[in-house]
Design brief:
- The protein has 374 residues and is of the alpha+beta class.
- 17% of the residues lie in helices and 42% in strands.
- Strands 6-2-3-4-17-16-15-10 form an eight-stranded antiparallel beta sheet. An eight-stranded antiparallel beta sheet has the order 14-11-12-13-25-24-23-18.
- Strand 7 and strand 8 form a beta hairpin.
- The N and C termini lie far apart (65 Å).
Length: 374
């Protein structure tokens, strides 16, 4: 194999796979990428056996072939060389010679035959999803997904698609048992598809992170599709596949209060700033903040015997009876950070009931945060 490729072109491909390649050394081949020549360029392939990505990049192919190289080392090397063209030549024993201007390198590779094959991507049963809408839904729910939670299914993001004649309604749900985020949006369906009326799948947190990262790169309309065991994502010559998680997602509707007796409206940025200040003196493990709602105001208070205490009063539109409760301040901050509106609505029934956060600027979005005793 011998190819010549623009340094930035190859670097872009390597950046896209850094979050997918396996960091642990359980299988050395999983920390590698596969470089495979095609008629008008090369394909870069990476997988951790759960998530796989394949991207096509323009290159001058002088000799066809394929080889597997360390994704991290090749990426680190290319970051340090000057812009220009890079020539890669596969040699005996899967060593690869790299020529970059006056710099020359040799990297030990592995045989391409050892690299795991990616699942076949089904082209049927996919729907065109506007990238901006999908990216926004992921941003507003991913923060609530469990991270290495003992309850396996909570480490995934629930995606529901409801197709009608001229639109697709997409809903994403994330929860770790302490907070819940739900985001829903009507997406215009630009092409006729034979999708079932309803599709539901749970994708791993890591897959959602990679899809969001790819969506943030540039404008474009991706294709998102579901098969029995896979979710597929295609955008600008890039294909990503991920196994769906098996199991039953919790009945999150039961957690969302139907009606809350006490409601307050507060300026979002003011509440966010105040929480950031008072949490500095909160207990590190719990980030506990006491919240007092009373006529016309909300008071935040934190106390730590080893550090001190903080109190902050904010104006609020609230006319109900006084109520004192407590929350993990980080959970509130995470929810406020993904909201787009200028004001936030807090809905709560009692000191020990969940708090619902909504915003006028975010139709279809809500977050539920469970209380804590302080």
């Amino acid at each position: 194999m011998k190819i010549t490729i623009a340094r930035d072109e190859l670097l872009t491909g390597l950046q896209r796979v850094q979050g997918i390649v396996e960091k642990r050394n359980t299988m050395p081949i999983l920390s590698n990428i596969l470089l495979e020549t095609k008629q008008d360029g090369i394909e870069l392939v990476a997988t951790d056996l759960e998530i796989g990505v394949r991207g096509h990049y323009k290159a001058d192919v002088q000799q066809a072939g394929s080889v597997s190289l360390s994704a991290r080392k090749l990426y680190e090397l290319l970051k340090e060389v000057a812009d220009g063209e890079i020539t890669l030549t596969a040699q005996e024993n899967n060593w690869v010679h790299i020529q970059a201007g006056r710099s020359q390198f040799k990297i030990v590779g592995l045989a391409a035959s050892e690299f795991p094959a990616l699942p076949t991507i089904e082209r049927e049963g996919r729907v065109a999803i506007p990238g901006s809408g999908l990216a926004s839904l992921i941003r507003k729910t991913l923060f609530a997904v469990g991270d290495n939670d003992a309850r396996y299914i909570l480490n995934g993001l629930l995606i529901t698609l409801h197709a009608s004649d001229n639109k697709v309604t997409m809903k994403l749900v994330g929860t770790d048992g302490h907070r819940l985020a739900v985001a829903e949006h009507d997406l215009t369906q630009s092409a006729k598809t034979d999708l079932p009326k309803d599709i539901q799948a749970i994708i791993p947190r890591k897959a959602a992170q990679e899809i969001r990262r790819l969506l943030d790169e540039e404008e474009g309309e991706p294709l998102l599709g579901f098969t029995k065991n896979l979710v597929t994502f295609q955008k600008s010559g890039l294909f990503l596949t991920s196994r769906v998680m098996e199991g039953t997602y919790p009945n999150y509707q039961q957690v969302i209060p139907k009606e809350s007796a006490k409601k307050a409206v507060i300026e979002r940025t003011a509440l966010e700033s105040a929480l950031r200040r008072v949490v500095v003196l909160a207990k590190d493990k719990t980030n506990a903040v006491k919240v007092l709602l009373q006529h016309g105001s909300i008071t935040l208070h934190t106390s730590n015997p080893d550090l001190g205490e903080a109190t902050e009063d904010l104006p609020a539109q609230y006319r109900g009876e006084s109520l004192t409760t407590g929350f993990n301040a980080r959970y509130l901050l995470d929810a406020l950070a993904v909201m787009d509106g200028d004001t936030v609505h807090l809905e709560i029934s009692s000191p020990l009931s969940p708090c619902v956060l909504k915003s006028d600027g975010d139709q279809g979005f809500l977050c539920v945060v469970m209380p804590m005793k302080i």
